[in-house]
Design brief:
By secondary structure, the protein is mainly alpha-helical. Helix content is 75%, strand content 6%. The longest helix is centred in the last third of the chain and has 36 residues.
Length: 125
Amino acid sequence: MLKEFKEFAFGGNLVDIAVGLVMGLALVELVGGLVDHVVMPIIGIIFGEPSFDGALVATINDSEIRFGSFLTAVITFIAIALGVFFFVVKPYQSYKARVAAGSEEPAPPPEDTVLLREIAAKIGN
């Protein structure tokens, strides 16, 4: 049972998942910083506020419905999703395609190369 656990834990899958999780969390922080410190200030330049948190607030019977906060969260989510897609998913798909292409049988050499090798082998004898 211990041997099976070692194979599972160190067989690659669990380590790959752990590395992916750490990289994903780091990417979320990176993209979150990009959104908070670059994108939202640009929105502030355009709309007058650096976020929509205070905008689009509906007050009904002392309850506030903050549509602006939701809109800010949507913008952050879209930025993170785009970052993950372009910096993780696309490179991974490209890598997997290269690996799959490399696992195929190599193409046979051209006929003239085969003939030249045969001639070189006969001359060398």
